[in-house]
Amino acid sequence: MARIAGVNIPTAKRVEIALQYIHGIGPAKAKEIVAKVGIAPERRVHQLSDQEVLQIRETIDRDYIVEGDLRRDVAMNIKRLMDLGCYRGLRHRRSLPVRGQRTHTNARTRKGKAKPIAGKKK
């Protein structure tokens, strides 16, 4: 197992795909990293030499914000919105959708399991 940015990446997968297991690296950044280091995209992680793994690790550390730092940045941005009391911050505080989606129906993922309302008494 190759360990990059504190994550064990799978050895049997192609390098581009394996890099996407790191939080903050998607398809575009993975291709960019592989191109910078100069590794053929079809190579598998277990075929890489220690030197190539080291180059990938150094490139990610130098040029990208990933894993813990990225999670911390996102959490701090959300906390800032909540402290400001702006509309987006209030939506985060109430665990409701932030980006304008309807909530009359749907939004179950964000709101949680439906709470039944007591039926009308006769």
Automatic annotation (TrEMBL):
This is Small ribosomal subunit protein uS13. Belongs to the universal ribosomal protein uS13 family. It comes from Labrys okinawensis. Part of the 30S ribosomal subunit. Forms a loose heterodimer with protein S19. Forms two bridges to the 50S subunit in the 70S ribosome. GO terms for cellular component: cytosol; small ribosomal subunit. Pfam families: Ribosomal_S13. Keywords: Ribonucleoprotein, Ribosomal protein, RNA-binding, rRNA-binding, tRNA-binding. Located at the top of the head of the 30S subunit, it contacts several helices of the 16S rRNA. In the 70S ribosome it contacts the 23S rRNA (bridge B1a) and protein L5 of the 50S subunit (bridge B1b), connecting the 2 subunits; these bridges are implicated in subunit movement. Contacts the tRNAs in the A and P-sites. GO terms for biological process: translation. InterPro entries: Rbsml_uS13_C, Ribosomal_uS13, Ribosomal_uS13-like_H2TH, Ribosomal_uS13_bac-type, Ribosomal_uS13_CS. One of its GO terms (molecular function) is tRNA binding. Residues 95-122 are annotated as: Disordered. The keyword RNA-binding applies.
